[in-house]
Amino acid sequence: MISENAKFWIMLTLALGYNTPKAKKLCQLYPDISFFFEKLQSEGRLCGILNRSDLEKLAAVSEADAIAVLDRCSYLGYSVLSIDDEAYPSCLFNIYSPPAVLYINGVLPDLEECFSIGIVGTRRASHYGIENSYKFGYSLAKCGVVVISGGALGVDCASHTGALAANGITVCVLGCGINYRYLSENAEMRRAITANGAVVSEYPPDEEPKNFYFPARNRIIAALSDGVLMIEAGKKSGALITADLALEMGRDVFALLGNNNPQNAGSNGRIKEGTAIPVTDYTDILANYGNLAIDIIEADPDVPTDVNFQSIPVKGNNLVPQHSQETSTVNKKPPVPDTPQTAPDKKPEISLTGDAKKVYDVLGYEPVHIDTIAEKLDMSVSRVLSNLTLLEIRGIVRALQGRNFVLK
Questions:
Q1: Are residues 370 and 275 in the same domain?
Q2: SS3 397
Q3: What residue numbers bound the domain in which 65 lies?
Q4: Partner of 106 for a Cys bridge, out of 33, 194, 269, 347, CB 3.0 to 4.6 A?
Q5: Contacts for 211 with CB less than 8 Å, ≥ 6 apart
Q6: 321 three-class SS
Q7: How many domains does the chain have?
Q8: For residue 172, what is the domain's CATH number?
């Protein structure tokens, strides 16, 4: 459900920017923001928050502009959470400049009741970085921890993928509109996230990425997380920005111990200066939270030993263009529902090895339940799910309702 006041907050962001701290001040001053907009000129001058330029910008934005954004969200199936909504996370509201509006694809977990860890790091991750990002994401999610990350290549992608393979909940915070094809390599991963978590953004659905959007996005990752883990962060890594923001917000900051490679210089440096807690596996994080770790460590979060880490995309490794925008006209046909397409004569030959190939061989163009796959292969469900997730991210497999899977 979208609140009646959402359009006013959208108008505010269209006029003053998507991460203006003035949104929080207005929210605190006006329990009902519609009153402010109804008497914009007088209240704008009297409230002590806006200057003349702000008022001119607000006057130039029409209600129709905001309604067009809401219509677009409705068409795409996104929900909209404004800063004065009861469901708006208090952990986000309490920061200096909370988003006036959150656009959500999927279901945002109740972060007041959940424990969450943000995982951040380089897009050019090494095999060590990818493997550990996946393992932390998998094990933490298996223990019931919500994994927060930014949906980028490398560390972000590996941590989201690990959480998905554990059938856990993960939240992807984007630095562009949700409907903008920021990284086509991760499109399937983002779609999978919405089935058991959420993709969120403070930017309207088709907003293209800008360089300064990503540092702003980092404050949301930090705010939604009880602690932030850095994996392979160089001296100028954006992960350090997230870590600094987390510290300012009173969050815990962890860093994976790395070698002397330059891409570990930032995270290792934070360990040396005492602003990051060194960790080597997920138990080091959970142990920092006392009784919480005792309660959830019984989940037996063993990571499958046959994960194909090379299938996780890393920046600079056979990438397709990152900023090709999807067609986004209002008259576009609705998305095709999750039903299998007409089957071709035979399955295509795809280069796969190990368990991924075994799972692929069992699948066809008719839905197959995950339990059936596990039974046929004499393989654990978690191990099958891990390989299905990797196949799904590569665009080979599609997940249907009821834990059924089919070749695309």
A1: no
A2: strand
A3: 6-77
A4: 194
A5: none
A6: coil
A7: 3
A8: 3.40.50.450
**Residue 92 near residue 24 (C-beta atoms within 8 A):** no
According to the model, what pLDDT value does residue 68 have? 96
In a domain? residue 175 = yes
> What's the CA gap between 79 and 369, in Å, rounded?
30
Contact 233, 122 (CB under 8 A): yes
Whether the CB-CB separation of 373 and 408 falls below 8 Å is answered with no
Q: How high is the mean pLDDT in each 10-residue block of the chain (408 residues)?
A: 86 95 96 94 93 94 95 96 96 96 96 94 92 94 95 94 94 96 84 94 96 92 97 91 95 92 91 95 90 57 70 66 34 39 60 82 86 85 76 77 78
Fill in the amino acid letter for 117. Answer: I
Structural domain contains residue 89: no
| CA neighbor of 201 nearest in space, from 236, 227, 173, 164 | 173
Beta-carbon contacts of 394 under 8 Å, excluding residues fewer than 6 positions away, are 188, 311
CA 60 to mean position of chain CA atoms: 33
Residues 256, 145 share a domain: yes
Residue 288 pairs in a beta bridge with none
For residue 30, which of 16, 54, 12, 17 has the smallest C-alpha distance? Answer: 12
Tell me phi and psi for residue 407, to 5 degrees. Answer: -70, 145
Residues 274 and 141 in one domain: yes
205, 126: one domain: yes
The span from the CA of 256 to the CA of 254, in Å, is 7
The residues, any chain, with a CB within 8 Å of residue 210's CB and separated by 6 or more, are 176
What are the residues whose beta carbons fall under 8 Å from the beta carbon of 224, sequence distance 6 or more? 89, 91, 92, 111, 116, 118, 148, 171, 173
Q: What pLDDT shows up at residue 317?
A: 62
- 203 & 256 share domain: yes
